[in-house]
Amino acid sequence: MGSDKTSTMKSGDPAAQALLADRSAVYIVLARGFSQPDETVLDFLRQCDQAGPRGDSDVGTSLAALLASIRDGDLDKLQQAYMRLFDPVNGPFPYESEHKTGHDFAKANILADIMGFYRAFGVEPSGDRADHMAAELEFMHLLTLKEHYAAGKGDQEHATLCREAGQKFFRDHLSLWTEGLLAAMRASLSKDDRDHHLFYEHLMSLLECFISSEKETLP
């Protein structure tokens, strides 16, 4: 993943479709990984053995390691690890606006822009804030899935709409704060003298290499 530009591939081309399917699968695995763990999340991840890219790519290797780490995972331990990692008082906080400097109105503008993207595609986040990492990843999953479906039907107009929205959302939001969040997460883990779940180390590795791959894939 990452070596081919989706924009250079003919819509509906098997290689382009396979790449879209792989990207969409990785996005939803990451989205579930950054969600607060419960039985539904755990069951979903355990059923993703065949999801996403395979082979010796960095993304494929990281994805396989992540899914292997959760196969026999204990939900209670995973929940404890999540709460220690994303300390609700001291952070790090998995919200885009918390990684931006500026006044409250600047953060409000970020949230408003994100909601503009979501509502344009009929998405209304439930439960947590719209700028949660899980929500942004799931939105990118939705866009790549919609692009895949439209391209497969030969609907180039809709495929292009989804692709361009994904490019802009990735450029203006997701790609801008991932590095900062990962640095904060790693700092949090390094300070924690209690055992933390290996799952989150693999989750960070997958997010890092996938975002790097997406920067090459998306023009």
Task: Tell me about this structure.
The protein is mainly α. It has a single domain (6-217), classed as Orthogonal Bundle (TorD-like). 67% of the residues lie in helices and 0% in strands. The chain has eight helices and no strands. α1 packs antiparallel against α6. The longest helix is centred in the C-terminal third of the chain and has 36 residues, at 156-191. Mean pLDDT is 89; it is low at 3-8.
Low confidence ranges: 3-8
What Rg do the Cα atoms give? 17 Å
Structural class by sheet pairing and helices: mainly alpha
C-alpha termini separation: 14 Å
CATH homologous superfamily designation: TorD-like
CATH class: Mainly Alpha
Measured as a percent range, the helix fraction is 55-70%
Sheet with the most strands, sense and barrel status: none
CATH topology (fold) name = TorD-like
Shape: globular
Looking at how many chains there are and whether they match, the oligomeric state comes to single chain
SSE order in H/E notation? HHHHHHHH
Number of spatially distinct domains: 1
**Number of helical segments?**
8
Q: From the coordinates shown, what is the CATH architecture?
A: Orthogonal Bundle
Keywords: Chaperone
